[in-house]
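Priority: medium. Attachment 1 of 2:
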């Protein structure tokens, strides 16, 4: 190995530490270069860690050979290096000796290994507030500073005397600026460290003498360490041997001889998460590598901040020997430097009143130009929490207070941020000397027209007046505007405000007068309307609609402001209409204890709205108003439109009914509960967080639907303006029994906490396998933090040791839990499965459903390899951590199952079975179809596609509209499933695609007056045309084949789509039908209106028969028509058919011969028999009956029986003999009392037909004269009816024949219905007597 003089850094023949044999070997090696073997050559990038600048920071070396030299390229950060692809090292020539030692190996040399080279001049940390020129020198020392003293030069040789307390390792490695490197024998590497006596443990405190320590180290190591005296009292330890052995030995010597150090390194809070790393991996790796103990409190370790203020600092505590502390500090500072190239800071010391002036300043704007700088100065024209200061006397400069909640955001390059910050602070100092303020009162409604969306912009106002305006917030009733600006321009700003305010138009609306007679009073109703409209945000909607500002008032006096007077009047009119549509009948207040408000708002308000159409307005916190019910509508809430008209009385009744139902639901919710009480519990503030967790656990254990108690920490709830410092109280409010139960539980808990507080010093320490540390810590510390909260102890984990501090019982319980977890992890098995990446998505399932099911079922962890993007994100979090490296090293096809042995085995088997299933069902195919065929393949609502999926069992994926877009006009349908299913689906889709590709589209321009004829009654003509052309029988496809225009705008074109042969036939059929229709003629046949019924027939049957017989269309005039058209029957069709049909119609309706017969009016309805007699004449003789224009007499009422004397039916147990004469008998006249006659005009085709009809009529008249009486006989015993009928009806037929009457026996005799006897009066009475005789004989 090449070496360098340890004394002066120059090469010399006798002082280079080489023997004659070694120089001879070097010469041979130069002559036989192709066979030369160079071993243990230090990496050029292997340089010393740059030492920090504090007093406790000690540089490792001043050896020039290990000082990083400036480079043209910046050093690669760890984060960037973690993203570089792995490069294979070039293969070295074979060497006769052992392989070269890896000097970068942290396992072989964990303490003194150097990092990659750093840039020559690192930028200063932004939180140090140093000038940009302050940087680090090339040797890593902060601007030549070490231990607080100024170093004269950064070019000092390694022989120079180190400063006090400096530990200086030096080596025989070649200098980067020295002479030509020389060879060294293997195993002859030499390195020194220099220790100041103040750094070493006093000899009397050492366990062994120094010589014994060195002897023991040399025995255990392959290196040899010797102690020498150095200049200035420095002790030099020189190690010789293999590189790794030398450094390990020197570190062990320093560890045993040096005293422990404890330093704190301040770092930005935003970098804290980067130092901790994922699951604490980064900080553990640094601790393991350096041997130092690094501590961050558990709260700080658990929180991972991203973009926080760089001025917020946290301390990292490092404890260990000087080398360990120094190495750990350098690694931490390296992480800080890597993540602070760009900074993000907030300026909280500048008053917000200066922001408008800074935004308008050109110098501030110029800071952004050409720089990596983002500057966000908030827009400030309305104060929120902090009001502007009081007006100073004589307009002297005002004193403004910064608002920490409204900072200026700066982010970007450190230098640019520092300069921008300095410039902003300088501007703030100038503005502090220049600006004053003045306040003036302007009506609230005019504010937004001064500055805001409806007024001028703040920038324009500032440019014109040199002043800014600050408005009060909406939740403040103040009318004071604040004008900020130079004293000489304040008046100008005030005048501008007055001009803007006076240009507004104002209108007033007294909504209380609209419903002056409200039951609860006009003012109360006005408050209800105001609450409701504000909750519905209706007022904001009116403001947007009319470009106005509306200032509601609970008294009902609303003010409307607008720049245009017309808009103000429109807004007022709309408001009054809105108020008119909301009378008191829409509102119902309900008194509900505030305890139920939150539950009512979150759980029941929406349900009441959906069920009853009533909106529930729950008052806000500290609002003593009652719960307000407002009826809206039973329609869905998003579709509801606020009414603007007075509801009717019927609507008001519906409102009241719905409001009562909603009120009952609410009262039912709160009824039956115990009295609501409030209790205070004394609890020290330091216990509030633990009490809160205890209460949360109590609430989580409540049954579903239970209302949790209200718990307030620091005393009862008070108004915002009355709130004071938090008190050591906890307030409970709710039903008395629940409050008492929780109160007892909390008192016991607090008492236990007080006892536990006395035992906080108890500590348990036990071994915990380091390999399971990540499991114990969890992601972002979630597992260890959960255990800390669950057991109320502090848990620290360090190098295989777990320390628990807290109450003894809780510490032991936590220890048991942790040891059980370790025992469970010991049983953990890991399986690595080789699964091709194309199956991963199916195995994982939608949103991880499949893999989550496996993990939950077997209690294991299944890790699929991450995507490239996820891997990069993981690497950026902790590129140099073990966990991150392990995840990144997972192969693309590797699936890892980790968990308990039995569960891991079962999960592996099921996952492999699932893989086989996926493989069996992972056959794929694609089918190319036309893009415009996709809708027909999908069908209405996806029915067609779902039908194909069910039929074939394959998964069919149709591309979306964006995916399907292609210049070729084709789309690819993907099919996936089993081989058989894929083949069937592919065949089916290809057949449909073939049919579609052979499909043509024709458009026929047919006048719309023919469309109805083409379709036909209920689509009969259309179906006939399609089926005759060879089209499908499925009527669902007919509308797709032939489409008629729906509106006038669509024109007359009929669209026909289908296979070419079918389309041609359909077009020909439609065209023939239209041609036939257009060649038709119209003719008129004069038919008297009274003969129209002969053409129409019963239900239009005669007309349809004529139309089918002659192939024409017959249009009979309606009865509503008058004039000549009343008798004109229109016949349309082919000329020959029309002529035949007309002749037939005239023949049917020609005047027929007739005869008039006078029929007594009282017999009219008896003969007509509800029209049956007329139909018999028409059907049998073709004779019709007319009454010569006279109206038939009214139909008499049908007689009905009534039981005599109101007697009831006899019982079946009664004596038949006793009831033999208890029958009921009534007689009624069948004919009406009408006097006179009514003509019956008989008309028929011949005299013979009329004569036959006349004969039937005469006979009917004769019978009607005889049938003049109706008798009702009710027998006492229902069982006697069967005797009246006789076997097979023999008795009743005999009675009918003997008496000449009509007898009707009821079917259900048990109901006491009467026997009806119709005929001549004497015959009726005879029939009655015969029936009674039969009954008597059978009694």
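Attachment 2 of 2:
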């Amino acid at each position: 190995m090449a070496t360098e003089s340890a004394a002066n850094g120059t090469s010399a023949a006798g002082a280079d530490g080489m023997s004659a044999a070694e120089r001879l070997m070097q010469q041979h090696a130069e002559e036989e270069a192709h066979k030369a073997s160079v071993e243990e050559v230090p990496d050029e990038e292997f340089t010393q860690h740059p030492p920090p600048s504090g007093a406790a920071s000690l540089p490792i070396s001043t050896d020039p050979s290990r000082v990083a030299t400036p480079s043209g390229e910046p050093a690669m950060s760890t984060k960037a290096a973690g993203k570089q692809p792995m490069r294979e090292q070039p293969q070295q020539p074979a060497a006769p000796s052992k392989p070269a030692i890896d000097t970068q190996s942290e396992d072989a040399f964990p303490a003194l290994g150097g990092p990659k080279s750093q840039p020559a001049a690192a930028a200063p940390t932004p939180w140090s507030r140093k000038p940009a020129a302050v940087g680090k020198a090339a040797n890593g020392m902060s601007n030549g500073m070490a231990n607080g003293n100024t170093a004269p030069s950064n070019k000092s040789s390694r022989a120079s005397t180190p400063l006090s307390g400096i530990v200086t390792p030096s080596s025989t490695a070649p200098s980067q600026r020295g002479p030509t490197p020389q060879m060294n024998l293997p195993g002859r590497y030499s390195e020194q460290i220099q220790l100041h006596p103040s750094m070493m443990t006093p000899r009397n405190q050492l366990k062994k003498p120094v010589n014994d320590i060195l002897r023991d180290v040399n025995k255990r190591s392959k290196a040899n360490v010797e102690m020498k005296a150095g200049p200035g009292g420095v002790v030099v330890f020189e190690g010789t041997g293999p590189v790794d052995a030398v450094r390990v030995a020197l570190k062990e010597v320093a560890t045993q001889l040096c005293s422990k150090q404890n330093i704190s390194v301040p770092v930005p809070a935003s970098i804290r998460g980067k130092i901790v790393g994922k699951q604490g991996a980064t900080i553990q790796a640094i601790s393991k590598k350096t041997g130092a103990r690094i501590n961050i409190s558990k709260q700080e370790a658990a929180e991972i901040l991203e973009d926080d203020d760089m001025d917020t600092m946290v301390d990292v505590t490092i404890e260990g020997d000087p080398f360990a502390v120094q190495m750990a500090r350098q690694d931490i500072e390296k992480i800080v430097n890597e993540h602070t190239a760009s900074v993000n800071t907030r300026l909280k010391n500048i008053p917000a009143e200066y922001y408008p002036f800074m935004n308008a300043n050109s110098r501030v704007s110029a800071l952004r130009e050409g720089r990596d700088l983002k500057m966000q100065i908030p827009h400030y024209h309305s104060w929120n929490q902090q009001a502007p200061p009081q007006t100073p006397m004589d307009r002297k400069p005002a004193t403004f207070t910064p608002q920490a909640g409204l900072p200026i955001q700066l982010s970007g390059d450190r230098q640019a941020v520092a300069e921008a910050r300095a410039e902003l602070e300088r501007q703030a100092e100038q503005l502090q000397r220049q600006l004053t303020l003045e306040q003036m009162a302007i009506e609230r409604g005019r504010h937004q027209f001064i500055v805001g969306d409806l007024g001028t912009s703040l920038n324009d106002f500032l440019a014109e007046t040199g002043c800014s305006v600050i408005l009060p917030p909406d939740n403040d009733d103040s009318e004071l505007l604040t004008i900020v600006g130079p004293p000489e321009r304040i008046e100008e700003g005030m005048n501008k405000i007055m001009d803007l305010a006076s240009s507004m138009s104002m209108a007033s609306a007294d909504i209380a007068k609209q419903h002056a007679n409200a039951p609860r009073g006009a003012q109360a109703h006005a408050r209800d309307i105001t609450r409701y409209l504000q909750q519905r945000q209706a007022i904001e909607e009116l403001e947007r609609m009319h470009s106005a500002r509306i200032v509601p008032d609970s008294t009902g006096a609303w003010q409307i402001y607008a720049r245009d007077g017309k808009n103000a009047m429109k807004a007022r009119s709309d408001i009054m209409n809105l108020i008119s549509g909301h009378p008191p009948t829409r509102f119902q207040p309900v008194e509900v204890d505030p305890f139920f408000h939150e539950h009512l708002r979150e759980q029941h308000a929406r349900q009441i709205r959906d069920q009853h159409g009533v909106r529930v307005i729950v008052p806000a916190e500290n609002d003593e108003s009652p719960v307000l019910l407002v009826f809206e509508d039973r329609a869905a809430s998003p579709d509801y439109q606020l009414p603007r008209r007075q509801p009717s009385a019927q609507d008001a009744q519906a409102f009241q009914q719905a409001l009562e139902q909603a009120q009952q639901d609410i009262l039912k919710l709160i009824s039956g509960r115990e009295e609501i009480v409030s209790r205070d519990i004394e609890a020290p503030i330091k216990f509030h967080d633990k009490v809160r967790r205890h209460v949360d656990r109590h609430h989580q254990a409540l049954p579903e639907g239970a209302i949790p108690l209200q718990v307030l920490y620091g005393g009862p709830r008070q108004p915002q303006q009355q709130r004071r410092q938090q008190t050591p109280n906890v307030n409970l409010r709710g039903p008395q029994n629940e409050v008492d139960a929780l109160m007892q539980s909390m008192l016991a808990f607090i008492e236990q906490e007080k006892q536990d507080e006395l035992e906080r010093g108890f500590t348990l320490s036990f071994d915990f396998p380091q390999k399971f540390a990540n499991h114990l810590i969890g992601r972002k510390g979630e597992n260890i933090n959960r255990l800390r909260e669950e057991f109320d102890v502090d848990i620290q984990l360090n190098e295989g040791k777990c320390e628990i501090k807290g109450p003894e019982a809780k510490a032991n319980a936590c220890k048991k839990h942790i040891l059980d977890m370790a025992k469970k992890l010991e049983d953990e098995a890991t399986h690595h499965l080789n699964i091709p990446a194309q199956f991963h998505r199916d195995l994982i399932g939608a949103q991880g459903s499949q893999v989550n099911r496996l993990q939950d079922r077997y209690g294991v962890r299944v890790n699929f390899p991450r995507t490239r993007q996820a891997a990069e994100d993981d690497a950026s979090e902790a590129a140099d951590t073990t966990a991150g490296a392990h995840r990144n090293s997972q192969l693309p096809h590797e699936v890892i199952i980790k968990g308990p042995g039995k569960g891991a085995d079962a999960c592996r088997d099921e996952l492999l079975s699932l893989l086989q299933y996926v493989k069996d069902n992972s056959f794929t195919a694609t089918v190319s179809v036309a893009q415009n065929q996709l809708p027909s393949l999908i069908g209405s609502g996806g029915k067609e596609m779902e039908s194909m999926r069910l039929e074939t069992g394959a998964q069919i994926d149709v591309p979306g509209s964006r995916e399907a877009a292609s210049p070729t006009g084709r789309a690819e349908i993907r099919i996936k499933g089993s081989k058989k299913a894929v083949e069937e689906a592919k065949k089916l889709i290809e057949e449909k695609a073939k049919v579609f590709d052979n499909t043509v589209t024709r458009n026929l321009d047919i006048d719309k007056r023919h469309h109805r004829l083409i379709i036909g009654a209920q689509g009969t003509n259309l179906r006939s045309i399609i089926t005759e052309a060879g089209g499908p029988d499925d009527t669902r496809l007919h509308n797709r084949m032939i489409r008629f225009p729906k509106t006038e705008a669509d024109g007359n074109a009929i669209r026909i789509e289908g296979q070419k042969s079918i389309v041609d036939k359909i077009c020909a059929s439609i065209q023939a039908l239209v041609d036939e229709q257009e060649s038709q003629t119209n003719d008129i046949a004069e038919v008297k209106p009274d003969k129209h019924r002969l053409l129409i027939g019963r239900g239009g049957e005669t007309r349809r028969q004529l139309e089918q017989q002659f192939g024409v269309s017959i249009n009979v005039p309606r009865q509503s028509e008058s004039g000549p058209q009343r008798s004109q029957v229109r016949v349309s069709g082919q000329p020959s058919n029309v002529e035949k049909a007309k002749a037939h119609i005239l023949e049917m309706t020609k005047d027929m011969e007739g005869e008039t017969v006078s029929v007594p009016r009282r017999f009219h309805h008896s003969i007509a028999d509800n029209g049956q007699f007329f139909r018999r004449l028409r059907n049998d003789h073709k004779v019709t009956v007319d009454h010569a224009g006279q109206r038939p007499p009214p139909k008499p009422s049908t007689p009905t029986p009534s039981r005599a004397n109101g007697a009831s039916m006899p019982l079946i147990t009664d004596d038949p003999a006793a009831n033999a004469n208890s029958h009921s008998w009534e007689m009624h006249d069948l004919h009406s009392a009408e006097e006179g006659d009514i003509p019956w005009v008989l008309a028929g085709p011949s005299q013979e037909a009329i004569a036959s009809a006349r004969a039937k009529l005469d006979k009917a008249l004769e019978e009607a004269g005889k049938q003049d009486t109706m008798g009702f006989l009710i027998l006492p015993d229902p069982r006697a009816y069967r005797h009246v009928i006789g076997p097979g009806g023999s008795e009743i037929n005999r009675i009918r024949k003997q008496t000449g009457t009509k007898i009707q026996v009821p079917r259900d005799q048990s109901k006491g219905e009467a026997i009806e006897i119709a005929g001549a009066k004497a015959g009726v009475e005879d029939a009655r007597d015969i029936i009674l005789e039969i009954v008597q004989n059978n009694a």
